[in-house]
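Q: Please design a sequence for this.
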């Protein structure tokens, strides 16, 4: 069918037959490991695997396989490769660019059964676990030994660590713990021909030639299936403090960030930006009492993590006093206990869900040099308003234009909250947004990846030489092209 105009099913791929399904059933043994929509009507069971978190992308998959071991994955991929059956690896299906959803009838390989935590070294902090472990479960496991998983994000309750690594997720504390390119020490991955690439080094340093595991960090399931990981966890800070500021201009938010780095230095663990519109929408959808009185054009959430609660709290209060007396911030509040910390974070973490409440969201996850970072929100809002697309009533597709994100990493989330997905809105946004980013030498994908959403726009952030090299790497690993086809590469 024509769900994706411009894309046609690749006729090199075989169509699934009862014979293929019989092989997989015999291989995986138990009934629950195969959802078979070929021999029976399994549409309702398959639906969650065919639709993404935003209800934006819909696939036509009729077979879901749930391997229980690396050996299962190896046998599945070898068979698929030999029989020209295309596959899509799927973790927690919380991705925001349509990468985890089949486009046509690709087989979904769901990783949820591979969720064993194998070992944790409480001296070095290295954690060995399966790709299908849920992020929050992994973090709770290492918390028992005083450690923290070096990644945290709003979808932690359902995303998988394998999905996190495959998208190279950034999240709320990249500022503190760095990117997964640094904290993933080892990867086990199955290549499309069934070969197991065992690069499960548990040590921090390993300069033995090319660092091949890095290719899987952010590959979005296009090179193979990540089955196991070694992750370097950090010491968990016993003292966490959070403050929320109201700020009168984006210029002042930048000054506050500079001051936070100066005054909080080694204990600063997050610096997040939310615009006034995002906070109004969260309030409109969820209700409740807002943490600060009145409306501010911008809000900053500052978190510190250190080893001495009193000392850190004092530092944070002093910082707040300083920025308030210098009129850098207009108002502020410091959380008094763990419940208040959670509440303040919920005004930031709740944005993604709340802005989708009206019908849908056009999401742009971009890196822009800090001085210009918020300007894109003004420009996009002006453009959509001039086209008559923004308004309070149902005949306007756009509810509002929202900006928030990881200011500490120059990563803005430009989101257009809509009542429905609408061609006119899309045409006004693309390629306009990507051209805007290219002019400032930003990145069209800071942390969410490319998936299907940005398939046609890679050239705005990568030159022909680099795209050519990426294609060669893809062909080397996956000559038949069975891994997550129709996506960005
Ligand atoms: P999926 O959505 O299942 O898959 C994502 C991609 O990885 C797909 O291309 C898929 O084919 C591939 N893949 C999955 N597992 C494997 C595997 N084992 N081997 C090979 N390929 C695989 N992202 C951020 O970066 N920062 C955030 O702060 C953030 N916050 C979020 C908040 C919310 C509320 C939501 C819904 C999403 C958020 N995301 C964020 C996006 C998303 O959660 C992350 O990208 C996450 O890392 C995806 O993990 P997943 O297991 O759900 O992967
Ligand atoms: C976030 O930072 O909240 C996530 O990346 C999700 C989003 O962009 O909405
Ligand atoms: Zn984010």
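A: Design:
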């Amino acid at each position: 069918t024509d769900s994706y105009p411009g894309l046609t099913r690749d006729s090199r791929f075989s169509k699934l037959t009862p014979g293929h399904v019989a092989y997989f059933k015999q291989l995986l043994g138990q009934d629950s490991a195969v959802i078979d929509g070929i021999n029976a009507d399994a549409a309702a069971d398959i639906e969650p695997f065919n639709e993404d978190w935003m209800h934006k992308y819909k696939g036509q998959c009729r077979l879901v396989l749930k391997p229980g071991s690396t050996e299962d994955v190896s046998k599945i991929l070898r068979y698929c490769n030999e029989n020209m059956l295309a596959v899509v690896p799927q973790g927690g299906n919380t991705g925001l660019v349509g990468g985890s959803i089949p486009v046509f009838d690709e087989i979904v390989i769901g990783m949820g059964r591979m969720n064993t935590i194998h070992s944790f070294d409480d001296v070095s902090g290295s954690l060995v676990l399966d790709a299908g472990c849920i992020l929050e479960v992994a973090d709770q496991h290492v918390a028992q030994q005083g450690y923290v998983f070096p990644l945290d994000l709003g979808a932690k309750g359902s995303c998988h660590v394998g999905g996190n690594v495959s998208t190279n997720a950034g999240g709320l504390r990249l500022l503190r713990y760095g990117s997964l390119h640094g904290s993933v020490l080892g990867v086990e991955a199955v290549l499309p021909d069934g070969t197991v690439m065992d690069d499960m080094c548990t040590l921090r340093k390993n300069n033995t030639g090319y660092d091949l595991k890095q290719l899987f960090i952010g590959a979005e399931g296009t090179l193979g299936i990540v089955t196991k990981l070694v992750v370097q966890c950090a010491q968990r800070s016993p003292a966490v403090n959070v403050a929320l500021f109201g700020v009168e201009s984006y210029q002042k938010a930048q000054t506050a960030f500079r001051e936070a780095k100066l005054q909080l230095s080694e204990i600063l663990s997050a610096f997040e930006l939310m615009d006034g519109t995002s906070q109004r929408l969260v309030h409109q959808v969820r209700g409740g009492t807002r943490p600060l009185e009145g409306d501010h054009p911008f809000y900053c959430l500052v978190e510190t993590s250190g080893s001495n609660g009193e000392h850190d709290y004092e530092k944070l209060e002093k910082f707040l006093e300083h920025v308030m007396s210098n009129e850098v911030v207009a108002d502020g509040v410091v959380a008094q206990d763990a419940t208040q910390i959670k509440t303040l974070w919920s005004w930031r973490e709740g944005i993604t869900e709340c802005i989708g409440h009206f019908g849908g969201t056009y999401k742009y996850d971009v890196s822009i040099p800090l001085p210009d970072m918020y300007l894109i929100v003004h420009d996009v809002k002006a453009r959509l308003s001039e086209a008559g697309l923004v308004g309070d009533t149902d005949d306007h597709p756009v509810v509002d234009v929202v900006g928030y994100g990881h200011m500490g990493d120059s990563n803005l989330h430009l989101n257009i909250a809509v009542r429905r997905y609408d061609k006119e809105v899309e045409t006004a946004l693309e390629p306009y947004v990507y051209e805007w980013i290219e002019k400032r030498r930003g990145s069209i994908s800071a942390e969410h990846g490319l998936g299907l959403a940005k398939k046609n726009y890679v050239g705005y952030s990568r030159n022909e030489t680099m795209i050519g090299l990426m294609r060669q790497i893809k062909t080397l690993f996956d000559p038949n092209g069975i891994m997550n086809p129709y996506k960005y590469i």
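Q: Thanks. Anything notable?
A: The mean pLDDT is 97. The chain has 17 helices and 18 strands.
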